[in-house]
Inverse folding.
């Protein structure tokens, strides 16, 4: 209980009749401060000298008279919920009435101070920081400050707020996201300054951590590095990188080869981040290689098509593979592989001489079969050039040429000179396909050209008719043998 009785001193001079009834009325405290819903003690007193001077406290608030004495009374105001009230202390003295009012300030500490969740931000974009203050009074004495770390970003006051009582306050402050804002803490502080009548009341929100990410713009889109053409059942290396991003360490990669999710290893180099992975045992087909990079709210993708080829051996066909001499022969070189960006076809002979070439499927060579083409090996070679890699496949086939027997001076010389009693053999060979047989006759008597050497005598001298024969025909040559006598 607070009791207060002011001392009113006596004058040293005589007091006239009119002056004898001069008195004062006081209330204490004159400018009380009370929390909304709280209670307050007020002391009313007077300097009136009338013994039965009457006084009281007039108010719309709930009151209880707690104590009184000569020329004073103490009251307690309870459950004060009116924001604006009239509380008047009055006394009547010798028929004169005087009163004085207490200027009661009712305040309310905000129930909570909240800073709205801050979205993940992209550098250069503008975002709003929103602070919410619930049920503060008197708003005119409220200050809201938004801090980034210890730095004040924004201060807002409400001196011109006119609505009585407690109000919800919304403070919005725009901020342009910068890289140096990343991982900074932002808080909302409120100060309800009741001084000099009361205290300085403060409260703050939970902090929000700013997350700022750099833009993924050209040329900062993901870059895929891999072979676009690869042989089946081989391994493929894949690299996806993005440069000039912030913060690079928070970039998230999603690498997919077709429907297969790749397990990538991540490496950092400055503001460049790189994901690397391997794809094994590739089956044939066309596949979408997709690299998606997520950096905060930003997602960018890069896509490449990878062609997985199985390059079979080329085919080589000779039509007909068995031909008569001077007939037309077609040599066809082809491949069943899908056409890559760069390839070439060649038909070569066994010694590697190029007989025909093309960059289109199939490659055809037409020729007239000659005797020298018999047994000729033709080679079909396909060369694929893919992403700087050369892949060569080849196959071969042999041409058979049929022709009638032929004998010439080299294979069956027309003249022989033998010396009597020496060992000699009649050599007479024939070319032809099928292989011809050779028979020589002298005056109707056969001479075995395949017989081993035998001794020469004069009877062997003479003219021989040698005939080479195969299924296609025959050829005859006259051979003369001269025998020199010893």
């Amino acid at each position: 209980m607070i009791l207060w009785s002011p001392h009113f001193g006596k004058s040293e001079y005589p007091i006239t009749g009119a002056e004898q009834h001069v008195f004062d009325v006081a209330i204490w405290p004159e400018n009380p401060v009370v929390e909304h819903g709280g209670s307050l003690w007020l002391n009313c007193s007077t300097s009136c000298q009338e013994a039965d001077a009457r006084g009281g406290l007039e108010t719309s608030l709930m009151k209880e008279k707690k104590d009184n004495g000569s020329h004073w009374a103490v009251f307690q105001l309870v459950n004060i919920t009116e924001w604006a009230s009239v509380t008047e202390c009055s006394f009547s003295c010798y028929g004169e009435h005087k009163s004085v009012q207490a200027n009661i300030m009712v305040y309310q500490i905000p129930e909570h101070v909240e800073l709205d969740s801050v979205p993940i931000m992209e550098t250069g974009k503008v975002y709003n920081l929103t602070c919410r203050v619930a049920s503060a009074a008197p708003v005119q004495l409220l200050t809201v400050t938004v801090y980034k770390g210890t730095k004040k970003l924004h201060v807002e006051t409400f001196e011109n707020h006119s609505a009585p009582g407690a109000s919800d306050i919304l403070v919005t402050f725009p901020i342009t996201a910068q890289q140096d804002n990343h991982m900074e803490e932002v808080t909302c502080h409120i100060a309800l300054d009741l001084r000099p009548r009361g205290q300085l009341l403060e409260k703050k929100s939970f902090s929000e951590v700013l997350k700022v990410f750099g833009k993924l713009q050209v040329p900062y889109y993901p870059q895929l590095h891999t072979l676009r053409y690869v042989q089946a059942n081989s391994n493929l290396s894949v690299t996806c990188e993005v440069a000039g991003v912030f913060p690079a360490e928070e970039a998230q990669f999603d690498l997919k080869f077709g429907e297969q999710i790749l397990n990538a290893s991540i490496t950092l180099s400055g503001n460049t981040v790189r994901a690397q992975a391997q794809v094994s045992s590739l089956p044939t087909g066309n596949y979408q290689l997709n690299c998606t990079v997520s950096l905060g709210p930003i997602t960018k993708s890069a896509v490449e098509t990878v062609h997985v080829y199985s390059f079979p051996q080329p085919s080589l066909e000779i039509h007909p593979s068995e031909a008569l001499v001077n007939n037309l022969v077609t040599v066809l070189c082809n491949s069943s592989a899908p056409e890559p960006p760069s390839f070439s076809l060649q038909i070569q002979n066994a010694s590697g001489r190029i007989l025909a070439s093309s960059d289109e499927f199939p490659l055809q060579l037409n020729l007239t079969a000659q005797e020298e083409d018999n047994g000729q090996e033709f080679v079909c070679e396909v060369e694929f050039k893919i992403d700087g890699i050369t892949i060569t496949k080849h196959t071969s086939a042999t041409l058979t040429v049929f022709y009638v027997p032929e004998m010439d001076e080299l294979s069956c010389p027309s003249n022989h000179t033998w010396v009597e009693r020496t060992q000699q053999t009649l050599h007479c060979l024939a070319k032809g396909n099928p292989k011809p047989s050779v028979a020589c006759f002298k005056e109707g008597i056969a001479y075995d050209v395949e017989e081993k050497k035998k001794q020469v005598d004069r009877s062997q001298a003479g003219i021989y008719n040698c005939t080479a024969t195969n299924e296609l025909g025959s050829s005859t040559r006259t051979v003369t043998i001269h025998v020199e006598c010893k």
In short: The chain is about 0% helix and 55% strand.
